Amino acid sequence: MYEPTDKMVSLIKDDYSVLQALGAFGINLGFGDKTVRETCEWNQVDTYTFLAVVNYTINANNTSNLGAKNENTAYDDDEQLSVPTLLHYLEASHAWFLDFQLPFIRRELEESLDADDQLGRLIMRLFDEYAAEISRHMKYEEKTLFPYVHSLLEGRPMSDYNIETFSKHHEQTDKKLREVKLMIIKYLPADAHLNNKLTATLYDIYSTEEWLRQHAQVEDHIFAPAIRLLERKTKQKDVTNNITTMVFKAGQDNSDALSDRERDVIIALVQGMQNKEIADHLCISTNTVITHRRNIARKLQIHSAAGLTIYAIVNGLVDISSVKL
Fold it and tell me: Which is more confident, 288 or 69?
């Protein structure tokens, strides 16, 4: 596991796949001997989130090479993860894959295959079908998932979507890519020059397939848990706001209906006076105080001392500094 104090160049020397992650996070090369933390801070990237993704994908690489299944779920309920940083990383990864990597591999295939050969045309068709499928998959995320997360971060979640909807429909889309690989392996031409080109293209396809697998794991095991946590926080905030609204709504709507004497009674109650003390303070009978309290409760729909205290503070009847909390 890499730490913030490790040299950034060490990560790349140990696993070249970190290079793509650097670009997606917005980290430029040329960082010299800076540490991971120094490099991230220089590029305004959250260090913890960067290392979470890098360590996870490197671990995924190692378990894959060993034939093991990566079951790392250590980032559930991890409040240190930066959702904006993760979102930027995924959006940039999509742009890199759709705008650069897919077109790059297609050009390689065109240069490596004989356009007049039926099998070559079939391989190109399979690849184009795969490219269209993965493009639809990523564009769906860009039109639904990413805007939803932006809305959560802005405090205005869309009610008709949640991260579980994404997780249930998040499937691998690499079946056609496997077909392309199989066809190429069987098709390798006798021509040495074309053979070398096609072998290099095949290597790039394998690397792309591995990147897609890691990308999906980051979405499932780091991004999705972070969004679940954000959803819970947003929901809790909404519940709190709703409760506050319910407490204040009647009072705010009916504040003009309170008489001056009823306001005086509220102030006295907030100051901790009992009925007899209020009666003496306002020069009225205890029964009149009780009547005022009943009218206050009916008009404001507030029946607790705490509720009246909040009402009095919000509506400027008392100063919060004078209230014993």
Answer: 288
Burial of 113 (0-12, 13-18, 19+ CB in 10 A): buried
Task: In whole angstroms, give the CA distance from residue 206 to residue 192.
Answer: 21
d(CA 129, CA 105): 14
What per-residue string of b and e applies to 306-315 under the rule 16 or more CB within 10 Å gives b?
Answer: ebbbbbbbeb
Residue 70 to residue 63: CA distance in whole angstroms: 6
Predicted pLDDT of residue 182: 80
pLDDT at 2: 92
- DSSP conformational letter for 28: P
pLDDT tens for 201-238 read 888 988 888 888 889 889 989 999 999 888 888 776 65
Q: How would you classify residue 156: left for phi > 0, otherwise alpha for psi between -120 and 50, otherwise beta?
A: beta
Spatial separation of the C-alpha atoms in residues 179 and 111, rounded to whole Å: 19
Residue 155 exposed, middle or buried by CB count within 10 Å (0-12, 13-18, 19+): exposed
Contact 134, 173 (CB under 8 A): yes
pTM of the model: 0.68
